[in-house]
């Protein structure tokens, strides 16, 4: 436990100083909220017609604040997965590809503990970004409600905010398996390819009707991307299964690094 605590502190400091954090964090906590507010404003303006207007029709309801928070959940379920996947591709794939991970074998802390700490730090960063992004959207929604005399913060807004947070955190967890992919392939590009492939497969699974039980589709469907009926079809057990991806992926990662004999 002492070794893990030390590794977590070291990895947290290193991750905070990384280029990935400096680039991705503003995108998640500022660009995503801006996109959510913009989507709702665009939907309510009626400027889009045809296919684009039909896709945004769900964000043109009477409660703009709730729509903004619903959009946050839908956007975060994809954005956090992609950001987390890219981050883990860099965190594991790059040092394995250029040989720097060989230094882990000489550390006093076992290499599997270092790998676990690195994955946990990236997971915490991605989940934290999801929470902060939701908080920014909540602030925007509060302003929207204040500017609308007939609106106010209600149970629908609170429920939408809660769903956005849960969806973002679940999406962060769904990125963790790509640390194991990066370890297996020893390539950041291959890991990114696997991430993109997973997103594509998710779309196919949803089209075939199996999205309610496919972890990588659950957060998006649960927040209403496929409509209210699709959101209602996602059972609590599917959410639990999605959350279980994290411990399973971390366990697989630890086993990988424990058995790793060369880099």
UniProtKB/TrEMBL annotation:
<feature type="transmembrane region" description="Helical">
    <location>
        <begin position="75"/>
        <end position="94"/>
    </location>
</feature>
<protein>
    <recommendedName>
        <fullName>ABC-2 family transporter protein</fullName>
    </recommendedName>
</protein>
<feature type="transmembrane region" description="Helical">
    <location>
        <begin position="20"/>
        <end position="43"/>
    </location>
</feature>
<feature type="transmembrane region" description="Helical">
    <location>
        <begin position="192"/>
        <end position="214"/>
    </location>
</feature>
<keyword id="KW-0472">Membrane</keyword>
<keyword id="KW-1133">Transmembrane helix</keyword>
<feature type="transmembrane region" description="Helical">
    <location>
        <begin position="115"/>
        <end position="144"/>
    </location>
</feature>
<feature type="transmembrane region" description="Helical">
    <location>
        <begin position="164"/>
        <end position="185"/>
    </location>
</feature>
<feature type="transmembrane region" description="Helical">
    <location>
        <begin position="234"/>
        <end position="255"/>
    </location>
</feature>
<keyword id="KW-0812">Transmembrane</keyword>
